Amino acid sequence: MKRKPTITIIGAASTTFGPKVLRDILNHPQVGGATFRFVDINEERLAIYDALARRLNEVLPDPVTIESTAERADALPGSDYVIISVDTGHYKTWEMDFTIPVELGVRQVTGELGGPGGLFHSLRQIPLHLEIARDIADLCPEAMVMVCSNPLNRICLAMERYVDVGQIAGLCHGAEMALYLYLNRVLGIDGDDMEITAAGTNHFTWILDLRRRSTGEDLYPYLKKQLAQIESGKQPLSRKLLEVYGYFPACLDDHFGEYVPYAYEFCGLEGTDFAGSLEQEEKRWQYLRDLVEDKVQWGKYEEYVGDQAVFSEELRLDDFFKPRSWADTLAFPIIAAIESHTLHRMPAVNLINDGIITNLPPDVFVEAPAVVDGSGIHPLCIGALPKPLASFCRRDIDQMELIVEAAVKGDRNLVLQAMLLDPVIDSVRVAEQVLDKMMKAQKAYLPQFK
C-alpha cells in the first residue's frame, strides 16, 4: 500500500491563504489520510488555525493527520511537498511600496509586483525565501516545492539559481480567477465549460486561446462581442489591449497594469485601501476565532464582516463545506493528480523555460498550461508567443534577473539598474529619490544592504 504523503504548509495561518488550504483539503479527497504540517511564526493565529483545521477534519471521510509548529525545521524532515505562502510586513510594507513612489511622481498602479513597489517587495521576499529553500535542501531535498508567495517568478528564479532543491513550481490562480470570477459572467458560460491557454510571465500572461469545452467553439469572437456591450469602465486596460493586440490579459487590470507604463490612464493611481484591508483582516481572524468557539454560524460571514465584493469575493469563508470545481491554491490538484495517478490539466503553472516558450530566454520561469500525472508536472509547449507579447515579457524577464541578483548580493547599484529598466520610470532623478527614500523607510527589512 502506497505511503500517504506529508505536506508542509509554510505560512499556513495567513488570513487569506490559510482558509483556502482548508477548503482545498475538503475539496480534494485524494489527499485523505495525508499528514499536514502547518507552520507559521504567528503562534496565536496558528493555534486558531490548528483548531479550525481539526474541526474541519471531523467532516472528512478520510481524516488527515494535523501537526502545527512555529519552527519550520521541525516540520520539514520527511516532507514530500512543501507549499510556501509568506510575506514580509504585508499591508504595512505594501503601503510604503505604493505611496512613496507615487508621492515622488511615479505612476505605478498597485505597487505589489511591478514598478518600484514590486521591486522592493522582491528585495524583501527573496532573502526570506532563500532561507526557507536552504532548510528544504538540508531537511527534505527531494520534496516538490510549490511557491505561492509574491512576487512569484522572482522568488522562484532566486531559489532555482541559488539553492539546490527539487522541482520548483510557482502557483498563481490569476488565470483561474479570470475564468471563474470574470469571463464566466461576461460570457454567461460556466467556468467549468471553458478552457484557456494562457502563457507569458507571471501576472503578465496572455490568453492565447479560449474555448468552450462542450463544443470546442472558439470563444474569442463571442468575448469581443460581449465586451462591446458592457460598461466601458470594467477592465478598461485589458479591453484596450485586446483591441490593440488581439489577446486578452489573463490576470486582468489589477495585475497586468503593473507592467505597462500607461496603465494609470485606465486604472488611476488610488492604489489599495490599506486601512480597510487591515480592518477586514482583523474581522476575518475574529470570525475564525468565533467559529472555533461555536459563537457564529458558517453561513453568517457577510453579516459579520460586511460585503466581501468590496474587497474580494474569492476570500469568502462562508462556503467552506461547499464543493468547488476550481482550486483555491493550485497546489492541491497537483498533489491529488500525482498521488492518485490521474491526468489533470492545469491552466497555468510557472516552471523553468526549457523549451516551453521558444522566443523567451531559457532558464527563467515562465507561465503556461501543464498536465499533471503520477510522474509529476509536465508543461505544455507553447512555441513562440506573438512578437509584441514576447517583447513585453522579455523586458519583464530582463528586469527580473537583475532584481534577483540585486536582492542576493545586496547591491544598491543593481537595484538602480533594475529600477531604470522599469517601464513606469521615466526619470533618473526620480528613480534615485525613490531608491533613497525606500531604502531608509524599509531598512529593517533589507539587512543585505549595508
Question: Could you please describe the fold and organization of this structure?
Answer:
The protein is of the alpha/beta class. The chain has three domains: 6-91 and 115-170, Rossmann fold (3-Layer(aba) Sandwich); 92-114 and 171-271 and 327-450, Alpha-Beta Complex (LDH C-terminal domain-like); 274-315, no CATH class. Helices cover 44% and strands 15% of the residues. It contains 17 helices and twelve strands. It has helices spanning 17-27, 43-57, 72-75, 91-103, 115-139, 152-162, 174-187, 220-227, 236-245, 252-256, 264-267, 274-292, 301-305, 331-340, 387-409, 412-420, 428-441, and strands spanning 6-10, 35-39, 65-69, 81-84, 144-147, 168-170, 194-201, 204-212, 248-249, 344-352, 365-373, 376-379. A six-stranded parallel beta sheet has the order 3-2-1-4-5-6, with helices on both faces. The chain has a three-stranded antiparallel beta sheet with strand order 7-8-9. It has a three-stranded antiparallel beta sheet with strand order 10-11-12, covered by helices on one side. Strand 2, helix 2 (43-57) and strand 3 form a beta-alpha-beta unit. Helix 4 packs antiparallel against helix 12 (274-292), helix 6 packs across helix 15 and helix 16 (412-420) packs across helix 17. The longest helix has 25 residues, at 115-139. It is globular.
